[in-house]
Design goal:
This protein is an all-alpha fold and about 230 residues long. The chain has one domain (about 5-225). The protein is built from eight helices and no strands. It has helices at about 5-30, 45-65, 70-75, 80-105, 110-135, 140-155, 155-170, 180-225. Keywords: Membrane, Transmembrane, Transmembrane helix. Pfam families: DUF2306.
Amino acid sequence: MSVKKAGAWWWIIAIFAFIAASFLAEPYALFNPALSRLELNPAFPLHYPLLVAHVLLAAVAQIIGPFQFLNGLRARRPQLHRLLGRIYLLCILLGSISAVAIIIVSLSSFERRAGFAVLAILWLLSAGQAYRAIRQRRIQDHRTWMIRNYAITLVAAMARVMSVFSVLLLLPQRNTTFAGHFDLLLAQAMETGFWIALVLNILFAEWLILSRRKRLDRQQATEAREVA
């Protein structure tokens, strides 16, 4: 993939991320527990504040992320790139911590909590690897891990899209498997959509990484021939 095509991809992702973040964060930005999309645990008063913090932190990371991959921004505004990077990683750290607390008190199904836990672990570990790489001046490794991390950041947004397709696929089973209960069908569709989104995002990230490596290899080969 050429640099120009890669830049176009990141702008498309940036638009999608902004729209998705606005949709996901809007109910929580109003700080009204009645608007929560998740069932709140009445025995744990901090459940809603933690949920708000997690959603808003994830939304900020989601919006910032694509701009960190634009070569022009890195080259022309390195200080801004580093500042946004620090904000992004801080959002991931605090978002992961709040996610753990939410999982503990959540009233959601075991499957849903397990999926959320897997996502939080991958989110934090990939961010840690990216931070470690940049501290050791391993620039290419840092960028590779940031691509993986941002793919995880976008899972919640992509899961909503995949859930729509899952609903359409499961609708024929509404009166059989789900005994006519659309709420059960929707819950299953959301869980299925989450795992599909996680797998697709990881695969897309690895494709981007592979394409980038091939481009760098070609550049190095060209430079070597010119030197020779």
